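tl;dr need the bound structure. longer version: we got a ligand (magnesium ion) that a collaborator sent over and nobodys looked at where it sits. i said id run it. heres the input, straight from their email, havent touched it
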Amino acid sequence: NGGGQDAKNLRVKLVLLGDSGVGKSCIVLRFVRGQFDPTSKVTVGASFLSQTIALQDSTTVKFEIWDTAGQERYAALAPLYYRGAAVAVIVYDITSPESFSKAQYWVKELQKHGSPDIVMALVGNKADLLEKREVAVQDGTDYAEKNGMFFIETSAKTADNINELFENENVRTMENS
Ligand code: GDP
Ligand code: MG
């Protein structure tokens, strides 16, 4: 699948899934360009970006990132992006219980139809909006633990935990490959 083989230059295919508006595109933009655009456009279909990071031991990891649209009308296209992906990052918005339910839908979908060795990460984004929080950290932690997923809360706005998300996934993927 999309996991890297060469110990020095790994290639990781990663797909972002989750409800429209949870911040998937902003997470990618923050990771790839170090920017946050509060007027970012709705993703149509899916978009592709890549970013290479260097690890301490001089290994490089090239992330090939598929950022999908969350809208229902594109749901049938999702398998095109998650099949062959080494890592699936499933995002919800900590101010939206509906988006947390949708994240659980994606986890089940991947458990049923995804590659059995796909690494899944659950991400609670918009962690800067603490006063509007409606999904407890514990709920995210518990769900992720039950489903053998890595869990992290991020903010694309403040950049909190964005690099940690990708670095962590990368480590898990290398362990798996
Ligand atoms: P997507 O549909 O999942 O790709 O969501 P977008 O990346 O387009 O973001 C949807 C909206 O949420 C935009 O108005 C962003 O400015 C906003 N947003 C994204 N990430 C964050 C975040 O971490 N904090 C806050 N406060 N807003 C965010
Ligand atoms: Mg988007």
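gonna send this back to them w/ a short note. Residues 20-26, 38, 40, 43, 70, 125-126, 128-129, 155-157 surround guanosine-5'-diphosphate (ligand 1) (CB under 6 Å).
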